[in-house]
């Protein structure tokens, strides 16, 4: 075992090309930029998602428990594995040791499979909510939804554990990452792709196809009947999660299909896979972890409003661990505007001047009323 570990570490010290012109000089810089952008947007965006659900009662529902769980899965890679990959890029090789390599690869697998299972859980939740609305409250109570999320993470952990025994978690110098190595075991690679990607994607496709069929039926209906009606808000929420699924499938499908090709005949197929295609497929998959929070902000009005309020609360040094679901729409627009911040600063300045003036005023001078800012709050 120690000999295998030593061989792995020795092999992992050398980056592809080894400074001999095997790779263009700009590639490492490009990959580093992509990774830095992904890490920053991933952490900030998914923290916004979690805080939005925590703060807003309208977002605090059974369906969004899976959204928070998906955000946690995306955060896992941004906090530990991606920074180590970035270090490997900057050092032109892995010099962090075998233990960090195994932990990084394990957490990356945990995040990926956790994301797949959470997206599957979200699709099943939307399917029950729209197509079986009468049974939804019983199936997806808050307690049951928490149990489903715990089950998802238990299954994720069980799915990742065999990697520690099969020796498939290794450093790949082409992508500067410790990750799942597709060429170690053909049977295991095929099993991973089938059960951790293809089967869940078919379940998701089935759920969303049924929803789309119902949507078309509702829109073409002329006379009212006893069939379920689809609210505009429900449809927008469905579209948001559908886009999350589509982008996930687009980002991860190339890497999984390459895995199937490699598993068919590793000795023959590995040299035939262009390195640029392999690297591009990996970093496209990495990039997916920062997209979900952006999608929620673009397509979901409640998330978008909450994002703005959290950002403004931070910028104006206000406490934001409060419920804000009942705020008025005009206040939201005002708080999110640059003029409001300027007005607050001017108001504070006026307040300071007023205190200074009050201390030095004549005894018989009438008491001044507090000055109010343009937002309607006493300054």
The Rg value, from CA coordinates, equals 26 Å
- Whole-number mean pLDDT: 81
CATH architecture: Up-down Bundle
CATH superfamily: Rhodopsin 7-helix transmembrane proteins
- Number of continuous helical runs: 16
Helix residue percentage: over 70%
* Terminal residue distance: 69 Å
Give a brief rundown of this model.
The protein has 379 residues and is mainly α. It has 16 helices and 2 strands.
Describe this protein's structure:
This is Melatonin receptor type 1A. The structure is a single chain. By secondary structure, this protein is an all-alpha fold. The protein has one domain: Up-down Bundle (Rhopdopsin 7-helix transmembrane proteins), CATH 1.20.1070.10. It is 72% helix and 2% strand. The protein has 16 helices and 2 strands. A two-stranded antiparallel sheet has the order 1-2. Strand 1 (169-172) and strand 2 form a beta hairpin. Helix 5 (98-131) packs antiparallel against helix 7.
Task: Write a concise keyword list for the protein shown above.
Rhopdopsin 7-helix transmembrane proteins; two-stranded antiparallel sheet; 16 helices; mainly alpha; 379 residues; 2% strand; disordered C terminus
């Amino acid at each position: 075992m120690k000999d295998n570990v030593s061989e792995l570490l020795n092999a992992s010290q050398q980056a592809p090309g080894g400074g001999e012109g095997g790779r263009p000089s700009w590639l490492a810089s490009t990959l580093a930029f992509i990774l830095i952008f992904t890490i920053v947007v991933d952490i900030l965006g998914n923290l916004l998602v979690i805080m939005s659900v925590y703060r807003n009662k309208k977002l605090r529902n059974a369906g969004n428990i899976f959204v928070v769980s998906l955000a946690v899965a995306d955060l896992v890679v941004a906090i530990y594995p991606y920074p180590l990959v970035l270090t490997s890029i900057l050092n032109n090789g892995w010099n962090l040791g075998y233990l960090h390599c195994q932990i990084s690869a394990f957490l990356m697998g945990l995040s990926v499979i956790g994301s797949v299972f959470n997206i599957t859980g979200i699709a099943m939740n939307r399917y029950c909510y729209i197509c079986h609305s009468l049974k939804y409250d019983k199936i997806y109570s808050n307690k049951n939804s928490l149990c489903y999320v715990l089950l998802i993470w238990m299954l994720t952990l069980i799915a990742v554990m065999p990697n520690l025994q099969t020796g498939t978690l290794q450093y790949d110098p082409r992508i500067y990452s410790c990750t799942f190595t597709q060429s170690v075991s053909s049977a295991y690679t095929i099993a991973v792709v089938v059960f951790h990607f293809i089967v869940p994607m078919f379940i998701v496709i089935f759920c969303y196809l049924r929803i789309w069929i119902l949507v078309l039926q509702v829109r073409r209906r002329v006379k009212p009947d006893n069939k379920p009606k689809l609210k505009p808000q429900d449809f927008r929420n469905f579209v948001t999660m559908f886009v999350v699924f589509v982008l996930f499938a687009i980002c991860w499908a190339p890497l999984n299909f390459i895995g199937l090709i490699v598993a068919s005949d590793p000795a023959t197929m590995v040299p035939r896979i262009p390195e640029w295609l392999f690297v591009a497929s990996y970093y496209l998959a990495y990039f997916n972890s920062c997209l979900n929070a952006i999608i929620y902000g673009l397509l979901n009005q409640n998330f978008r409003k909450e994002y703005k309020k959290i950002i403004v609360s931070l910028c104006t040094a206000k406490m934001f661990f409060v419920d804000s679901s009942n705020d008025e729409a005009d206040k939201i627009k005002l708080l999110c505007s640059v003029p409001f911040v300027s007005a607050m600063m001017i108001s504070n300045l006026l307040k300071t001047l007023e205190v200074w003036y009050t201390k030095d005023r004549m005894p018989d001078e009438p008491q001044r009323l507090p000055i109010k800012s343009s937002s309607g709050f006493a300054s």
